[in-house]
Known about the structure:
Elements: E1 2-4, E2 13-17, E3 20-26, E4 36-41, H1 50-59, H2 61-70, E5 78-82, E6 90-95, H3 104-121, E7 126-129, H4 141-157, E8 164-169, H5 172-184
Parallel strand pairs: 3-8, 4-6, 4-7, 7-8
Antiparallel strand pairs: 1-2, 2-3, 5-6
Amino acid sequence: MVIREPETGDTAMQITIGQTRVELIEGDITEMHTDAIVNAANSQLQHGGGVAGAIVHKGGRIIQEESNRIAPVPVGQAAMTGAGNLKCRYVIHAVGPRMGEGDEDAKLQSATLSSLRLADEHALRSVAFCAISTGIFGYPIDRCAEMMLTTVADYVQDSTGLKHIVFCLYDQNAYEVFEAVLRKIKPR
């Protein structure tokens, strides 16, 4: 495992696990140049607010129109659409859990894993995740970081075509929470 410490003026931390670079940045996921970005979606893929709303606002109505054709998507699963006017090629819509519905940790792990598998099935090389379910779904950021980062670390131990996985976090607090968890990740 290689850890690159942030340099002055640099908001990124990254490690390499197997052949995959896992990176944290603070920023706007709609500006990512990765092959795909992962949207925090609801089961009906109605992208009205939060990250989902921002993605449709920047990417265009075509994302919502494609989503309408493939919905519903069960909690813990993911589906993919084109990216409209975004800088990425695809949007992976991961349906994370709402706090209080039960078995939230397993559902978040499943949504993360489903997103990774979908990226591999489409031969994508890079993907950017947001902190799924931490907005209006109320999932705690510390548990989100633990579930998502350990799922990614376990997944990239095996054969994957993904070479770059980014966690694009919306604020300094989310970044710091993810950074603390990433520092503890030990490749198996």
